[in-house]
Amino acid sequence: MKRTLLTGNGAAAWGVRLAGVDYVPAFPITPQTEIIETIANWIDLGEMDCRMVTLESEHSMITAAGAAAATGVRAFTATSSQGLLYAMEMIYTVAGWRVPFVMVNVSRGLSAPITLEPDHNDILVARDSGFLQIHCATCQEVLDSILMAFRLAEDEQVRLPVIVNMDGFYLSFTREPVEIPDADAVTRFLPPFDPENICFRASAPVSEAVAVLGGPPYSYFRYETHLASLNAVPVFAKIAEEFAQAFGRTYEAVEAYRTDDAELVFVIMGSFATKAKDAVDRLREAGRSVGLLRPRLLRPFPNGDIRRILAGKKGVAVIDQNLSMGMGGVLHSELASALYGQAHAPPVLVSFIGGLGGRDIGPEEFYEMASVTRKAVEDGKAPAPRLLYTEKELREVRKLQAIAQVERENLGQNQ
Amino acid sequence: MSETVFKRMKSLPSAHLLGAGTSLCAGCGGLEALKEIYDILGEKTVIVNAAGCMTLLTIYPFTPFRGSWLYTAMASAPAGAQGIRDALDILLHKGRISPEEDLKVVVLTGDGAAYGMGLSSTSGAIERELDFLYICYDNEGYGNTGQQFSGATPHGARTSTSKGPRGFPGYKKDLFAIWSAHRPSYVATVVGAEALDLARKIEKAAGLKGPRLIIALSPCPTGWSYDPKETVEIGKLAVKTGVWPLKESINGEVVHTKVPHKRLPVEAYLERQGRFAHLFSPQRNKVLLKEIQARVDAYWERVSQPTLL
Amino acid sequence: MYRIRFHGRGGQGMKTASRILGRAFFLEGFEVQDAPRYGAERRGAPMFAYVRASRNTINERGIIRRPDLVVVADDTLVPVSAAGVLQGVTEHTVMLINSNEKPEVWKDRLNISGQVLTMPSVAEKEDRLEPRFISASCAGVAARLVGVISRTSLKQAISAELAHLGAAVVDKNLAGALESYDLMGSHSGSVTPGHEVPAYAYQNPEWIELPFEDARVSAPAIHATATSEKMKTGLWRTMRPVIDYSRCNRCWWVCSTFCPDSAISLDDEGYPQIDYEHCKGCMVCVAQCPSHAIHAIPEQEAEAGTPAGERL
Q1: Which of A85, A146, A341, C72 has the fewest CB atoms below 10 angstroms from its CB?
Q2: Pairing outcome for strands B45-49 and B68-71
Q3: Which residues does C contribute to its contact with A (CB < 8 Å)?
């Protein structure tokens, strides 16, 4: 065990190395590329007994990862943003193959307009695919989650691919102290993968991922995938407990911070949750009874934990770093769905959209969100969803528009 | 290269490995070719399939295969082959499976995937020198969706998206040349109707390493509109008229394996098929027939000059 | 509401029949639904199409569970359970079968209490080879049986639905269909709209909780080989290839090599054997046999006669 400084990408690469991954089909995309560069370098130096192949697209990359997993090796891959979307046909497809492997997604906003900076719209496109999703808030968590993700994916009660998600820049390119576990301890925690009867061998012919005719068999296969995904809630809890015993770090499906006696609770995913934690501490110092809830598992959605933690709270502020066009924040909808009709569910659920395309969320914004939510509780009515956006930001955009010669008053007149 | 075991028709397999009872059309020229190919490749294979007619070979719980199969998607069957080949190599290298457990990795796609959507993943697989065999059953259109034109549709053919009096205005893409330009180990054209030629080529391909790619012209009674019993005859006419040159390329050197020395006029091939009926009635489209003939003539003219082979 | 199902084989024109009947109803002022339903199978494989017609808006969708009329274009389909010809048939349902056998024979054989009719005036063999003719005739008889479609509307519907095939085809189909329509005059109105099932007397659907089963069982993977042989694609055949062994010269197994369906194997002496359970009837073997030792006979004739094609 050693403690060192690693970026989120570096921590991911260490997770892969320690997991004894056999195969890494790859394709470069910012801000994920450092992961595969690091692994490639270790392979070149003979430090990892692993094969890496650069495919010609993410679509092919996921196909190769799924096919290799279906042949019985431990596979890993990584992507981001547009790459994840380009691969999306195969994301859904390989989940249906019921093959276990792990992928890191480094979240980055989606085009158009094209950007390099993070938000969560990319990963949420994969929400309904059958891939499980673990969302990380620190670089340490990235490394640890990869180890747990292989256990989860390969568990016979699950057998589904898993995405470990981290935010671009805020984690991917940010160094933090990370504890690198001993290889032996990791091997004890994560023994080699046995694919059992799901593999291609001359002695055991199998036709995999075949077509079906009609609704009943299709419904069966799809619903079994859903049931396997649901199983991942208790299986994750078991794995996290073993992980805590082996390495001393505890990861629950939902991270709850100062929620026990809180009246108001922030709900937020990913690395900005640490900023929200800070805000909670400041608000507590100011006498406000506020806590934080962070879903670590997004799929399966930890309904039970969320209902339990939020039971009896007066108000919830959901902060979405994503936008479902024509609907609003995705996490807000998920929360509403989890809480509706539940005994002791918080009466007020306020929706905030922030952090799109790497936009920061400042401490004063958390304080204001707490204030808005408190007022909503008093009014007994949630206000309309709020985009976190300031007068100053719009002024800056106006300056850009001026250079772009978007002369609003002349539009349509100078043809 | 060792001598072929397929010296004459009688040395062709007399028992067939591919199971009967598939849902493919009666008289399917692609299935005929696949059956002949499978007899030679054998059951220690994993066939990686892209979306197309042959996806319906396996419909839960029915499969005609005695070896393995994986359906991927329309664009990425060669990438699926990459994943399986790499995984098998890793398992062999790390001693986790015995060499007897190894499989030949075979990609099976239609022309829609091979000439179009899957070309990028095929190019990548060849460039990475993937050890695999690619079988394209080419029925010259998107057959499984009702025969719309594809990059493989010949000039003038009527398809369900080219129903006009001149048929398909484009020209069949030269996939053999595109593949060959990558310098893979082996590229060949075959047709089920020339079973001996096909058998020798599959035998040769099976004995090589690296990327080996086969285009099987697949007469299609449904999409080409002819009586299913004509499948073999039409396949033979494609060769005899010079429309479908049987050839192979080993490390870039192209050899024609069955040169039709007295080439029949292309009409002999075209007039048997409903998709070309508009070239013959209500009146003969002399201009278009002449153009099609001229292009075939020009091909054979070009390849008869040894320096340009 | 009228609910009518047409059963046939891919290529026999049951989709066209359903469209002709649908349009004929429409021309009579009915609200209409018509649709075909295919599996993955192709020409020759069992398929069905259906028509709903009502004076009111039709909210029902999808397959017809309780047909008022079942039209079977090909009587070899009746015993094929996968074809689903008898699904939902009650004493209320009229069965119309295209068959050379008498209605009473079918009624007995199927042990059903409802009315059974056969297609009139359908001269035997010709029609088997002319599926378009069957489709218009089936629609014509169906139109007469419901008793609410005029001869004029039927005529218009056929002309409209077959227009793309040219005037000659339209005329031929019109003649056959109208003749069938006229011949069934005495049965006009024998098909009546079925009653709706009341919401208070429904049969419980018996839902279950789908149990979790791990991926070794519940992945869409087949751990067996050559299971396709359980599919009896021989049922697709309308013509049967029969080998005349006196002319078979045990050549270099042309028929066996070219059969796309692995349906011709060789026996110990090198004679080909046709697997009729799977032969789809493409007739490639008939066309390719160098000594012309294989000939084609209509399937019904083969079934009626001696077990042709077996080496005696």
Answers
A1: A341
A2: parallel
A3: 39-40, 210, 212-216, 218-223, 225
